[in-house]
Design a protein that fits this description.
TIM Barrel; 12 helices; 16% strand; binds indole-3-glycerol phosphate; amino-acid biosynthesis; EC 4.1.1.48; Indole-3-glycerol_P_synth
Length: 273
């Protein structure tokens, strides 16, 4: 049976073929190479492992998310740049920008605008299913890309991670099960996310983080993804050892996202002083 993930990937591949007709792989490789020289990637690993924050608060990856497959339209984001600046002002360690169009309403234009607006690392959040998308991410300024273990076989995972590192970027490698965590770790992932949203049913269960986190080895940056509605959930993830948390909906719907981020970080400090 086709899952939501499978359906999304069909659309991602169709869009990719269109862009590849405009700018073929070799030309995109050259654009990425130019970006590597003129505007090298920011160190997302360092930022998520502690970075400029001198307390022990959880690091926040704040997402620019217009819509989602489970909820439809989430927020009317007139200026992704302005939203990203608010995230940065509140103390976010990185900004995630959805670039998938059909289900998330994102675009590479959003990525360009956000990268130019902030000094913190920027994640291109998309369904990476081809080498092309990694060169393209770097050409558009991405510092970090998403690799979803469930969408890739082991050789793709290893190859895409190596290319990401070659271009000076980091990868957030997303897992949903113990087996996927093991596959992520086996290829040498340095930043591993546990997404508590089931990609087949889209159900969110934050308890999945506590259940799966013991399988993350020391030395990888641990990211809890999805399901944050308020500070309590952030405190729970922090208690369960998350170094960073990825938050979308709760921030795009909040009237004061800078303050929301401050509140999330403060909540995490109450559980680890
Ligand atoms: O809006 P939320 O529940 O805070 O979730 C954010 C983020 O984890 C979610 O957008 C996400 C996690 N992994 C993904 C992969 C693709 C698209 C989106 C995602």
């Amino acid at each position: 049976m086709a899952t939501v993930l499978d359906e999304i990937i069909v659309g991602v591949r169709a869009d990719l073929e269109e862009r590849r007709r405009e700018v073929p792989l070799q030309a995109m490789r050259e654009r990425a190479a130019v970006a590597v020289r003129s505007s090298p990637a920011r160190d997302a690993h360092a930022a998520l492992a502690g970075g400029r924050l001198d307390d022990h608060g959880i690091r926040i990856i704040s997402e620019v998310k217009r819509s989602s497959p489970s909820k439809g339209a989430l927020a009317d984001i007139a200026s992704p740049a302005e939203l990203a600046r608010r995230y940065e002002a509140g103390g976010a360690s990185a900004v995630s920008v959805l670039t998938e169009r059909h289900r998330f309403g994102g675009s590479l234009q959003d990525l360009d605008a956000v990268r130019a607006a902030v000094d913190i690392p920027v994640l291109r959040k998309d369904f990476t299913v081809d080498e092309y998308m990694i060169h393209e991410a770097r050409a558009h300024g991405a510092d970090l890309i998403l690799l979803i273990v469930a969408a890739l076989d082991d050789s793709q995972l290893a190859e895409y991670l190596a290319l990401t590192h070659e271009l000076g970027m980091n990868a957030l490698v997303e897992a949903h099960t113990v087996e996927e965590i093991e596959r992520a770790v086996a290829v040498g992932s340095r930043i591993v996310g546990v997404n508590v949203r089931n990609l087949k049913t889209l159900d969110v269960d934050p308890r999945n983080y506590a259940a799966l986190a013991p399988n993350l080895p020391a030395g990888v940056v641990r990211v809890a993804e999805s399901g944050v509605q308020g500070p309590e959930q952030v405190a729970d993830y922090a208690r369960d050892g998350a170094d960073a948390v990825l938050v979308g909906e709760a921030l795009v719907r909040h009237g004061d996202p800078s303050q929301a981020i401050r509140d999330f970080r403060a909540a995490s400090l109450t559980v680890r002083g």
